[in-house]
C-alpha cells in the first residue's frame, strides 16, 4: 500500500545511525533503484523536496553536503506553495510557469541519464528534467516539511506516457 512520512514538530530521540540524516528532515529509501527505468508518484503538503541521490551522500551535519540537491551526489525538486525549483550541486533553477498539483511523478531513466519530474492531475506536465551521467546506484529521496505519501500510480493512465 501507500507509505507516508509526516514531520512532527516535537523532538523525537533516536540513537545515532550512519544512514540517518541528522541535520535535515529527509530520508532515502532503503532499496536502490536497480534496473533501467523507474517511475513513482507522491502526494505532498507543506514544503518538501523529492529526488534521487547516491548512497554516498553525507548524512551528518546541517550543510550543503547532506541536503538533497545541494551537492554533486543528488538531484531534487523543491516544492512549496510559492512554486517549484530544481536543484543540483548548489545550482537552482526557479520554475515559475510549471503547472501546480498536489501529486508529483518522478521518472528515472538510469542508462539514458535523466531524471524527470511531472505535475500529475488529470494530465501530466513536465516540470523539469535533469540530464546526467550516473556513476553509482540511485536511491529515491525525500525532504519532508509537512507530509509526503508515496502513491501507487494508475498504470492504465500512465502506461503509454513513457
UniProtKB/TrEMBL annotation:
Any one GO MF term held by the record is:
zinc ion binding
UniProt cross-references to InterPro entries, sorted A to Z: B30.2/SPRY, B30.2/SPRY_sf, Butyrophylin_SPRY, ConA-like_dom_sf, E3_ubiq-ligase_TRIM/RNF, PRY, SPRY_dom
Protein's name in the database: B30.2/SPRY domain-containing protein
SMART domains, sorted: SPRY
Q: Is-annotated flag, keyword Zinc-finger?
A: yes
- The source's superkingdom equals Eukaryota
Q: Which residues form the B30.2/SPRY domain?
A: 1-157
The terms describing its cellular component in GO are: cytoplasm
To which species is this protein native? Cirrhinus mrigala (Mrigala)
Q: Which UniProt keywords apply?
A: Metal-binding, Zinc, Zinc-finger
Q: Which Pfam families match?
A: PRY, SPRY
